[in-house]
Amino acid sequence: MSSDTVQDLTPYRENNVTTENKDAHIGNNGGTEILSKNQRKKLLRHQKWEEERNLRKQKRKEKRQKRSLERKTQGEEGGEFVAGRKRLRKEVKPSSPLRLVIDCSFDNLMMFKDVRKLHKQIQRCYAVNRRAVHPVQFFLTSLGGQLKQNMDKTDEGWVNWKDITVKEEAYHEVVAKEQLVYLTSDSPNVLTELDDTKAYVIGGLVDHNHHKGITFERAQELGIDHAQLPLNSFVKMNSRKVLAVNHVFEIMLVYLEKRDWQEAFFTVLPLRKGAIPLGQEGTATEENEEEEDSDRDSDTAETVIQNTTNTQDQQEKGQGGQETLQLKEAPKEQTAA
């Protein structure tokens, strides 16, 4: 064989095991090199993987068909099976006229790590409202500063959020003062019923109780109504009664559905709060509230959850908005709400 012929065959032999000796192949210098044991194993695994490519494809197809058949069967037998989030969304009742407003004007009073926690709590509020039986009119006001920067950086899809009104202006510039009720645990007024004509304001503050009473002071300065949730009438707690933004938000949503404050509290409040129905305190012990509650504050809500709402909207409209819905454990940070 001429040298030209050998040169033409070299590229082929370099990448293939020869039929005469499976332990050898042609090297870059044209000579024969012996494959190591590991190289032979890798080569055989690759060959086997290529040979079974069509088989894997067929198995995936059969698996999809099987799942499709199971969903169809369940739908016919049970009548309650929901195929996809789009149908689930259609079953949600019309939005409530009630408005919930998160006041984000405390940006300069928080450390950046607490701003990030507030962001996660807002994500949680948005997620639960989108899936609520009675979704409320959701407002974010005074959005700017560190909070907006963090949202733009870590959750670019928030600009595609639906069923939410985002304003740079303060809440009292967006809603008439006579319609506002600031929810604050320092208020002497107790909220017993929800008024659909009102807009209830939740203080967007994560401060480890460093600014006690600030939301109550803000409400008094503006001359607007204020109230606290009827927690003392239904719940005995081993920790502080200052709840996180998302907890207040979720309690309001559950109450709209159940019309029962006690059920709303015990559906939402985390176990770490030591919540016990009033009159059933038993031997519940007091904890070191200030330090322990702060140490356990969570940075979760990712996603939850993540991209649940994005998936829902893709099914509804085929759009790629990156709505973040982290539905893991709710964030546990305290706020001024």
From TrEMBL:
Residue ranges, compositional bias (Basic residues): 56-66
Q: Which GO terms describe its cellular component?
A: cytosol; nucleoplasm
Q: Where is the stretch described as Disordered?
A: 1-82, 279-337
- Its EC number is 2.1.1.221
Give one GO biological process term.
Answer: tRNA N1-guanine methylation
User: Which intervals carry biased composition (Polar residues)?
Assistant: 1-19
- Catalytic residues identified in the record: D207 (proton acceptor)
Ranges annotated as biased composition (Acidic residues): 284-296
The protein's superkingdom reads: Eukaryota
Q: Name one GO molecular function term.
A: tRNA binding
Name the CDD domains on file.
Answer: Trm10euk_A
What PROSITE patterns does the entry give? Answer: SAM_MT_TRM10
Q: Report the catalytic activity.
A: guanosine(9) in tRNA + S-adenosyl-L-methionine = N(1)-methylguanosine(9) in tRNA + S-adenosyl-L-homocysteine + H(+)
Keyword field? Methyltransferase, S-adenosyl-L-methionine, Transferase
For the SAM-dependent MTase TRM10-type domain, which residue ranges apply? 84-276
Q: What is the role of the protein in this entry? A: S-adenosyl-L-methionine-dependent guanine N(1)-methyltransferase that catalyzes the formation of N(1)-methylguanine at position 9 (m1G9) in tRNAs. Probably not able to catalyze formation of N(1)-methyladenine at position 9 (m1A9) in tRNAs.
Q: What is this protein called?
A: tRNA methyltransferase 10 homolog A
Q: Which organism is it from?
A: Salmo trutta (Brown trout)
Q: Which gene encodes it?
A: TRMT10A
